[in-house]
Amino acid sequence: MAYVMEMSFDNSHRLVRKRHLFEYRGYQFSLIQDNPGKHPDHLLTILPTYDELHLNAAFSVAAEFASAVCWQNNARVAIWESGGRSSSHVQPLARLQPSIFSLPRIPSRGNVVGYELTRLPLIETEAQRMALARFREGRASNNDYLSFLFFWQVLEVGGGNPIGFVDKALRKYRREIHQAVEAIDKLPLQGRSVGHYLYTDCRNVIAHFRPKSGAMLNLDARHDRVHLVWSTRAIEQFAKCYIRNVLGLKKYCYLVRKRRGAFPMYFPEDQLSAHRYRIAYPSPSWGAITGKLKRKIIK
């Protein structure tokens, strides 16, 4: 008996279409947008049967997709399993409608519209997947303390040295992390390196690792909270830089159809040159980039 798995997909950046069908990592999904003020969006997939093996595998793929959307659109994205239903007569995915409506979880900062799913980062390694998952959770959190810890963990993926990377990035990738530099100017470094400050006065204090000085985070002190906000903004930029330059996330995949009417699926960009594919969901914005308003065929 087939099982319809429903996941809530909370996305701060609204897409140009209400429904997207796509295949990602061998699983077919339907992403349906909802009213962002009332409910998160819905991510549906049909599994052959209800069992933990299929559920775990499908959710892992869906979560990776959410991480890719977060990275590509610079959005706040949260995903969680809502439930599901078993049935011997399941409608096709294109006509399937959600039956579970939950409440949004990401902080509301207004709607940003006009985004697409045509291009996503190509996640090739386990380190890239793990780092993007932590980056996604850091972006989705409404708590600066938690966000800082997630972004710091990004710098630890693959056995990285966060303190050393922060100080190196300020020398080597300064233009790329100009937003972090602006935030750093507002921090009380007191002669310490930026990496050492973020480690001792932020990471350790938030995690309640008390150094010899016995420093603790004063949650009621305005200046402590302001410094933490600027530190979180800075470490987010360092996390982006680490993912791009150390973990090598620089390639893309595209949502295309093999032929007219075929189910949309993501293909790596280096495989598109060998075949003729159609952009799955062409739009004026995509056409403006390519010079065509209707449809782009990647040759």
Description:
The chain is α+β, with helices and mostly antiparallel strands. The chain has 3 domains: 2-117; 126-245, no CATH class; 252-298, no CATH class. The chain has 8 helices and 12 strands. The chain has helices at residues 52-73, 126-140, 144-154, 162-172, 178-184, 194-206, 222-245, 284-290, and strands at 2-11, 13-15, 19-24, 27-32, 41-47, 77-87, 112-115, 119-121, 252-257, 265-268, 277-279, 297-298. The strands form 3 sheets. It has a 5-stranded antiparallel beta sheet with strand order 3-4-5-1-6. Strands 8, 9, 10, 11 and 12 form a 5-stranded antiparallel beta sheet that branches. Strands 2-7 form a two-stranded parallel ribbon. Strand 3 and strand 4 (27-32) form a beta hairpin. Helix 1 crosses helix 2 (126-140). The two termini are 41 Å apart. The model is unreliable at 286-299 (pLDDT under 50).
At a glance:
It is built from eight helices and twelve strands. It is an alpha+beta fold and 299 residues long. Strands 3-4-5-1-6 form a five-stranded antiparallel β-sheet. Strands 8, 9, 10, 11 and 12 form a five-stranded antiparallel β-sheet that branches. Strands 2-7 form a two-stranded parallel sheet.
Number of spatially distinct domains: 3
The residue ranges in which pLDDT falls below 50 over 5 or more consecutive positions are 286-299
The number of helical runs is: 8
Structural class: alpha+beta
Question: How would you describe the shape?
Answer: globular
Q: How helical, in percent, are the residues?
A: 25-40%
The spatial strand order of the largest sheet comes to 3-4-5-1-6
How many strands, what sense, and barrel or not for the largest sheet? 5 strands, antiparallel
Mean pLDDT: 90
